[in-house]
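Cross-check.
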Amino acid sequence: MSAEVAMTAQPKPIQPWLSVILPVYRGERWIERTLESLAVQADGGVEVVVIDSSPDRGTMKLVEKFALRLTLTILDPAGTDGCSPKMNLGVAHARAPYISWLCQDDLWLPGRVAAVREWVREAPGAALHLAPAAIIDRDGHMLGVWRCPLKAGPVDQAVLTEKLIVQNFVAAPSPVVRRDAWIECGGLDLDLWYTGDWDLWLKLGRHGTVVYHDEVTAAFRIHGESATSTGSRDAADFVDQHRIVVDRHIAAIPSRRREPARRLADASIAVNAALAAAANGESAAIGRALGAIAGLGPVGAARYLHRSRIIERAWPRLRARWAGVL
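Predicted model, tokenized:
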């Protein structure tokens, strides 16, 4: 069966303005809460494109409960598996001019639809709208806010690259992307199983206008089964995934600022690798992470902490681990 629209769950408006791409695999634990967070905002112009590669119909039975409350488009994955291939497939079939990415365990917060409508009304030509995200635990409790190190409003392309190349500070459920920009950039690189979204934000940042909105309208859930918790166990490949992105985009930074940015990025990779090792039981790795930061000196360390948002990203995970909810 080809990868085409296999079912339309309810009559759709002539032209949706936003397509939410929802790649799913065995999503029974989370999917009802995720879809409910969209359905309560009641906007028929929001298309939800679901691509489910589960081996049974358990998840789809839950999705179909929302057929009368959401504009659902179900795509046949046709052998497509993995989040990135399903995202690219969903974007290719989406009918709206703007795209939002939603993982099966993440949420929209009240007011997101109204906020995103205003974002695209104010800057319809922007390739990428960025925003912070709430971080929640497996039970939906708020653990913190993950912000981008940017000022609200249009973001200079060189500044974005210089900051973003240090660390991916974008939580996937928050951005809104112009669909044609996603396609023109080549979408998610399927070779980057861990850093594909980071690479995509950098590509989009170089493709067109980027606007940062300092509004928290989406929630990123952390739990022990998430890709960020389970996908970093091959240490060498994990490091390579980061280095590929840095090497690919470092030349976009003005030459006089390129080497300092490279030092910050290299230190960030070392910190990420050490933290991944620590999460997998290597207690001595914490010392390596602290050493990588200290090696930058006071000014470099301060820049790293600001650009990486490591405290905002790590502290909620520590809280969840201590509380036994990770």
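Residues 1-10 have pLDDT under 50 and may be disordered. The chain is about 45% helix and 15% strand. Passed to J.P. for a second look.
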